[in-house]
């Protein structure tokens, strides 16, 4: 059994990952802003025979993320996996000048990731091991119109995670998972009409979030000497 911390666990990939990993016998520590959803998810996990903890978490608050990790160590003596999943995607053209939305993506998608690394890395180094999983995007591999800032944050997330892999002690494993189009609430935050309509067409074919949970399960389930560094998962129809 691994102690697995998951940010953005209230919906989408985070929710699906919590369900899958709990079903596989791991203890999941759930973090997100919507505590009511986390409580319902934890009940579902407990009712199915699994175990879970709930923590209200805003990844843009460095102190909250540090306490998220520290509390898990106090309760369970260690932490084995940190899944940095929290993210936002309010797409828009740059000439729409939705600067507040750009800032929000930077805060959650980049600073939130850095806060996770800062919170978890000291524990992993003290333990002599651990596994950091970043949920990036196929937007970390290509840029499309309306997604310049979002893709920029995901390129950054991929680069930061690769830097962590290169710098980390050999006992620390590091994985970047880049999903393609997945069923989620991410598109609900798009306010620009043109971007919203383009995303409706783009999301005509999607993967269920459990597909990505399966990739995470595969990566963390490998023997200690095996480090799955990068996984890209997209629908067969996505190009």
Structure characterization notes:
- The chain has 239 residues and is of the alpha/beta class.
- Helices cover 46% and strands 16% of the residues.
- Helix 4 runs parallel beside helix 5.
- The longest helix has 29 residues.
- Belongs to the short-chain dehydrogenases/reductases (SDR) family.
- InterPro entries: NAD(P)-bd_dom_sf (IPR036291), Sc_DH/Rdtase_CS (IPR020904), SDR_fam (IPR002347).
- Residue-averaged pLDDT: 94
Helix content: 40-55%
Number of strands: 7
Class from secondary-structure proportions? alpha/beta
Major sheet characteristics: 7 strands, parallel
Shape: globular
End-to-end separation in angstroms reads: 37 Å
User: What's the helix-strand series?
Assistant: EHEHEHEHEHEHHE
Please compute the radius of gyration using only Cα atoms.
17 Å
Task: List unreliable stretches of 5+ residues.
Answer: none
User: What is the topology, as strand order, of the major beta sheet?
Assistant: 3-2-1-4-5-6-7
Strand content: 15-25%
Question: Given the structure, what is the number of helices?
Answer: 7
């Amino acid at each position: 059994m691994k102690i697995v911390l998951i940010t953005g666990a209230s919906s989408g990939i985070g929710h699906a990952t919590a369900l899958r990993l709990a079903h596989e016998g791991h203890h999941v520590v759930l973090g997100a802003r919507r505590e009511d959803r986390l409580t319902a998810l934890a009940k579902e996990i407990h009712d199915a025979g699994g175990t879970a903890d709930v923590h209200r978490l805003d990844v843009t608050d460095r102190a909250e993320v540090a306490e998220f990790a520290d509390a898990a160590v106090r309760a369970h003596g260690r932490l084995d996996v940190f899944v940095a999943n929290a993210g936002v995607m309010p797409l828009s053209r740059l000439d729409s000048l939705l600067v507040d939305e750009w800032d929000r993506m930077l805060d959650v998608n980049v600073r939130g990731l850095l806060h996770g690394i800062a919170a978890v890395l000291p524990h992993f180094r003290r333990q002599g091991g651990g596994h950091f999983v970043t949920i990036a995007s196929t937007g970390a591999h290509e840029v499309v119109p309306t997604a310049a800032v979002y893709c920029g944050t995901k390129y950054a997330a991929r680069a930061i995670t690769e830097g962590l892999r290169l710098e980390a002690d050999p006992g620390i494993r590091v994985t970047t998972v880049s999903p393609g189009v997945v069923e989620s609430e991410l598109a609900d935050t798009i306010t620009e009409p043109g971007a919203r309509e383009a995303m409706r067409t783009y999301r005509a074919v999607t993967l269920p979030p459990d597909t990505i949970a399966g990739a995470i399960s595969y990566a963390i389930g490998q023997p200690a000497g095996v480090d799955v560094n990068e996984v890209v998962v997209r629908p067969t129809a996505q190009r």
